[in-house]
Design goal:
Keywords: Signal. Helices cover 0% and strands 53% of the residues. The chain is mainly beta and 163 residues long. It has one domain: Lipocalin, CATH 2.40.128.
């Protein structure tokens, strides 16, 4: 299935990445706060994987920004993601879980996909394998490394417009 976004087959492949990166071996994440990514707040929509995507980000509160993601293809929900970016130890961490359209989880009950902050650079915030980019107040890009079952990876761009 092509929709294994960072689930069990997450691969960071610098050779294929143009907009994503990884934290160097042994390096610590830089200091950051939710203020650095608060521009993500809002209701966003776009197209990917042959369907319509929707991503909703709440405002920073309680030390996190919560989000939900949905892909609809051929009139059916392909999958959901639920997660957050949270402040932890004076930096940020991006964490998520995947669900099939019937809300059965992809990950084990207590398993969470977790991505360390690599850097904050102007209108871009880099996590391992993901980059969030503010194009304008009404447009964002999310770049994600997507791994397939065969171990290959490609960078996918999600372009979202504000609802």
């Amino acid at each position: 299935m092509r929709y294994f976004i960072c689930a069990l087959f997450f691969v960071v492949s610098a050779a294929h990445a143009q907009n994503t990166t990884a934290l160097p071996e042994g390096a610590a994440s830089p200091k950051a706060t939710l203020k650095d990514i608060s521009w993500m707040q809002g209701h966003w929509s776009g197209e990917a994987f042959g369907g319509i995507t929707e991503e909703i980000w709440g405002p920073p509160s309680g030390g996190s920004m919560m989000f939900s993601f949905k892909l609809v293809s051929d009139g059916q929900v392909g999958f959901y993601e639920l997660g957050h970016i949270r402040e932890l130890d004076n930096t940020l961490v991006y964490e998520l879980k995947h669900f099939h359209g019937d809300l059965k989880g992809w990950e084990e009950k207590d398993e969470v996909q977790s991505f360390k902050l690599v850097k904050v650079d102007g209108k871009r915030v880099y996590f391992e394998g993901f980059t969030f980019e503010k194009v304008s107040n009404d447009e964002i890009n999310i770049y994600a490394q997507i791994g397939d079952e065969d171990g290959s990876a490609e960078e996918v761009t999600f372009n979202f417009k504000k609802e």
